[in-house]
Amino acid sequence: MLSRVRVWLNRTYAENVFFMDQLRRNPSDRAVEIHASHGDPDSPVLAAADTAELEPDGLSPAAYVEYALAQCSRRGIDVFVPRLHQAAIVAHRAEFEAVGTALLAPTPEAVAVFEDKATAYEAVRSVGVPVPPWWRVRTAHELVAAVEELEADGHRACFKPAAGAGGVGFRVITRAPFSLLHLNGFPGPHVQLDLVVDALERADHPVDWLVMPRLEQPEVSVDCLTGTDNRVRLAVGRTKNGRRRGFTLHEQWLEPARLIAEGFGLHHLSNIQFRMFGDRPVLLDVNARPAGGLHQLSLCGVNAPWAAVRLALGEDPGEIVPPFLGQDYTVVSGLRPLRPVSLPAQRVDETEPLLPAVPAPATEPAPEVTTEAGTPATARA
């Protein structure tokens, strides 16, 4: 009988409740126990885990590595999926292996390349993957010069932090003066150039932004699963055009994604995003981690989280080809229960028996229910 697999996700995003669900519903019918840690006591991933705890605040990356090693050793973690302090953690892979924990994460070199978008664009351009024109700016003068050059070529300018994820800090430049029109409806990504310039001139430190043309849809996110032999086992594109989502296996998206994943050591799960610049796809971003929407591949008959865990454990799943491409869909908010107390009940020491592969029925009062805006369910478009 195969032993139970214990997986830890640290300070991850709410959508990974679906990642956890797929691990439990794995096609190998293998028992999986999930540990989660987070800084937010009301994170849905804490409620969805078999065991969970709040992470200590204020740890340096080096101190966090020590904390993580202790967690893996004490809790018998087989596979660790790090998001917080990923760079520091992968630099100590051998130490995690020494306590019996495999890291579901890329090489330190890959993390270093793709932590910084400017470095990433330079790197992938050197291997022949098209990238959009871009400028790295730190001052108001550099921003205005980049915007004027883009506008002279007929493009709308936008900017985003050189380091960051999830679209945080993304803005589209407009020349339209601020008016009541900008106060109608919900806030959008557009920001007036004069307001940005004024903010930069009054700032007491430089920024680190990339300025580039506003790229067009469709946006295609290619989810890749890559072995430590630098061979891609799975590559499927998820398309987004407005509210409509779908899937693609077209090589115009998959070929450059494979080139990046295999060429830069993006082992295990990664997500490589493209958009259109004129009539050709160009790189938008590379995430050296599982995407929040990875679970959507279940509509294609693929359980990518479980395949990744098998690969991390040294069980090669082989090449994975979706048996079909799911129908188009959209993403909506859903409900997810929270624990009625801030700190979930814990297994007090490593000598106690492990919990079952699914959470035990609640014996506490009925939990609160919250709408987690970032937690999608799928439905017909």
Task: Please explain how this structure is put together.
α2 links the parallel β2 and β3. This protein has eleven helices and 17 strands. α1 (16-24) packs across α11 and α8 packs antiparallel against α9. The two termini are 43 Å apart. With 381 residues, it is α/β, with parallel strands linked by helices. The strands form four sheets. A five-stranded parallel beta sheet has the order 3-2-1-4-5. It has a five-stranded mixed beta sheet with strand order 6-10-7-8-9. Strands 13-12-11-14-15 form a five-stranded antiparallel beta sheet. The radius of gyration is 22 Å and the shape is globular.
List the helices and strands and how they pair.
Blueprint: E1 5-10, H1 16-24, E2 32-38, H2 44-48, E3 51-54, H3 61-75, E4 79-81, H4 86-90, H5 93-98, E5 102-103, H6 108-115, H7 117-126, E6 135-137, H8 140-152, E7 157-161, E8 171-174, E9 190-192, H9 193-202, E10 209-213, E11 216-226, E12 232-241, E13 244-248, H10 251-263, E14 268-277, E15 280-287, H11 304-312, E16 329-337, E17 369-380
Parallel strand pairs: 1-2, 1-4, 2-3, 4-5, 8-9
Antiparallel strand pairs: 6-10, 7-8, 7-10, 11-12, 11-14, 12-13, 14-15, 16-17
Helix pairs in contact: 1-11, 8-9
